[in-house]
Amino acid sequence: MTTESQTGSQTDPGAGLELPAGFLLGAATAAYQIEGAAGVDGRGPSIWDTFSRQPGRVLGGDTGDVAIEHYDRYRQDVALMAGLGLQAYRFSISWSRVQPDGRGPLNQAGVDFYSRLVDELLAAGIQPWPTLYHWDLPQPLEDAGGWPERATAERFADYAGAISSALGDRVSQWTTLNEPWCSAFLGYGSGVHAPGRQDPAASVRAGHHLMLGHGLAASLISSAGHQVGVTINLYDVLPASDREIDREAARRIDGLQNRFFLDPVLLGSYPADVVADLAGVTDFAFVREGDLAVISTPLDILGVNYYTRHVVTGDATAGNDGHGGPVGGQASPWPGSEQVGFLPGELPVTAMGWEIHAEGLTSVLKRVAREYPSVPLYVTENGAAFFDEPDADGLVRDTDRVRYLEGHLRACRDAVDAGVPLKGYFCWSLFDNFEWSWGYSRRFGLVYVDYETQTRTPKSSAYWYSDLIRGRLAV
Ligand code: IFM
After folding, report:
1. What does the pLDDT look like over 268-320, one tens digit per residue?
2. What total of structural domains would you count in the chain?
3. Residues 6+ apart with CB under 8 A from 13
4. What distance separates the 2 farthest-apart alpha carbons in the chain?
5. How far is the C-alpha of 386 from the C-alpha of 93, rounded, in Å?
6. pLDDT of 58 strictly over 60
7. CATH number for the domain harbouring residue 417
8. Percentages (nearest 5) of helix, strand, coil residues in the chain
9. Which of 12, 36, 368, 385 has its CA 20 to 30 A from that of 256?
10. Which regions of 2-124 does DSSP assign to beta strands (E)?
11. Quick one: residue 191, left, alpha or beta (phi over 0 = left, psi -120 to 50 = alpha)?
12. What is the pLDDT at residue 318?
């Protein structure tokens, strides 16, 4: 039960926030960000193990070696989720833990960990929602060329088939990829993410092979009778002005950020304008006959991750690329559209510097429902980083995050009212964790983690979310 001292609020920020009956409310994490136990039970290195050890790649030299020790503390963590009343838990499976070389037989000790986690969740009445790939490619596959190589898509499908059969007696809901835009364009374009390559042509090939891997895996999982989806990070992309040059910049960035993934997956084709924008980068000769039919394998759900908007200009005077990391020297993650400028926002921002723009979530959801064939939608990530710290009483009063979540859940409700087939929402993240190139410096959690002692402390937002789930907020 929420108390005023826990939410840090004198009003009830959920008042009037009615969500439809059956609307699923959960929280999300990802393997490398929380598990730790990097060298345990046969786990092999992933590209993030390699990348985070390279000097200057991650703020403070942080790595996921220990993270929040979820591998050892998963029972305590599931008990915490149950205490909050989470209905579903979205986590990712570390490919390197269950298939260290990225090929060949599964590593039984790794599979056993996820099997125990699934059992624990089911016993607590929490639906497991595993994602098969949240950016942690086994290093041996990167050594063989990584996602720019077609063979990586085939390896991914083998892994997906094997692990989904191993857990398929208890897990019926699968997500193939998380945010392929980041894997392709931050991993192989700007180099802000692992494996840290800066090769525009390779980044586009990586994008195609990620989606091919998705399609091959989705088709296997679907034929085994399971539900399958993919999660794409979508942005509301707005021109800085009504001038043609800014509208053109917005078309380009919307193309690379949103439509480059939505179109092949849901329409079975690449957007012609994006292919034209990329003409100086690649000729798309890597797309083989039949690939787009595979990529557009019918889905049971589409996951939407939403955090903020992009305001862009064709004037190229604004320095930031919209996805800069904390360490300098990176290239652009926008192949063929490097000239587009991203304007610093006028709205309040989170600790990531991302503008808080809840209405953009409604727009994005309505746009997907309007422009693409109907598929049930879930917001699979939404949340905010703030510089949270416990107060003298040991409470973490993250009123900013309560406000952020409340605004975005209202935006979900507005989308539902407008007829969008939105079925659920997962908060990012359940725990403070390893925020990629930002290391542990940015806290996204509903639950505060003291990285010295590994103590978990639910923040005000966790109590607020718990009350929302349990229908305890006055309406
Ligand atoms: O932490 C990440 C997550 O791994 C993927 N989506 C965005 C989050 C916040 O940056």
Report:
1. 999 999 999 999 999 999 999 999 999 999 999 999 999 999 999 998 665 55
2. 1
3. 7, 402, 403, 406, 464, 473
4. 63
5. 27
6. yes
7. 3.20.20.80
8. 40, 15, 45
9. 385
10. 24-28, 88-92
11. left
12. 57
- The answer, yes or no, to whether residue 1 has pLDDT greater than 60, is no
Q: Give the SS3 label for residue 470.
A: coil
Which of 136, 349, 444 is the pocket-test mutation for ligand 1 (most atoms within 8 Å of CB)? 444
Domain span at residue 120?
A: 4-473
What is the Cα–Cα distance from 368 to 382, expressed in whole angstroms? 17
Element (H, E) at 67: none
- The whole-angstrom separation of Cα 278 and Cα 335 is 7
Q: Which residue minimizes the CA distance to atom 10 of ligand 1? A: 435
Q: How many CA atoms lie within 13 A of 447 on its CB side?
A: 24
**316: how many CB neighbours lie within 10 A of its CB?**
14
297 CA to centre of own chain: 21
Ligand 1 center to residue 134 CA distance, Å? Answer: 9
Q: What is the pLDDT of residues 132-150, one digit of tens each?
A: 999 999 999 999 999 999 9
- Type of residue numbered 82: A
What is the SS3 assignment for 145? coil
How far is ligand 1, taken at its centre, from the CA of residue 435, in Å?
Answer: 7
* 361: Cβ contacts below 8 Å, ≥ 6 apart: 236, 306, 379, 382, 408, 411, 412, 415
d(CA 136, CA 198): 18
C-alpha–C-alpha distance, residues 451 and 459, integer Å: 15
The model's pTM: 0.96
User: Residues lining ligand 1, CB < 6 A?
Assistant: 30, 33, 179, 305, 381, 428, 435, 444
Residue 317's pLDDT is what? 60
Q: List the catalytic residues.
A: 179, 381
Distance 288 CA to ligand 1 centre (A): 31
Report how far ligand 1's centroid is from the alpha carbon of 285 (Å). Answer: 31
